[in-house]
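Q: Structure tokens for this one, please.
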Amino acid sequence: MQNSNFLKRDLKTFAVINFTTAILMILFSIIGHYLTPYKLIPSSVIGGTIGLLSGVYLCFKLNYVDKKNFFPVLFSSLIYFGAISFVAVFNLNNPVVILVVFPLTGLITIISNRYFINHHYLSASKIYGTFGLVLAFPALYFVVASILRFQFGYDFLFGFVENLLSRTNG
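A: Here is the predicted structure, written as tokens:
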């Protein structure tokens, strides 16, 4: 019986997160299209981020997300959403990738909620420190790559970025 309650709660969480993210992403992309033509991607990413924030908050208020793990679940969901948004921008010619990865946002919220419930002994400083390292990695990558390229003449770290930018959707 307990597993049935967990499954129902997880399905509700999945539905709430994906619904709010999708509705606000579509709404912001329509608004962005009318207000600033050719700026569809930034407005849809902003809408998806706001939808994810509101969906996780709604799950928090409905007690689908554990109260003491609200911020770790929120940050892990935002990190995943940022990563898939980056992937989606460079794969606009392959909509199957976009249709597969965006619905997983609710699943990531469920997985992170379960993880932080089961690993309650982790200190908050370790959790937030790990999130800080993950969020600081792109900036560190570009600083190191810029120093190596412009000071020492090694541009091997920019190969990945130049490959992305040379694609038609990048």
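A few notes: The mean pLDDT is 84. The chain has two domains: 2-120, 123-170.
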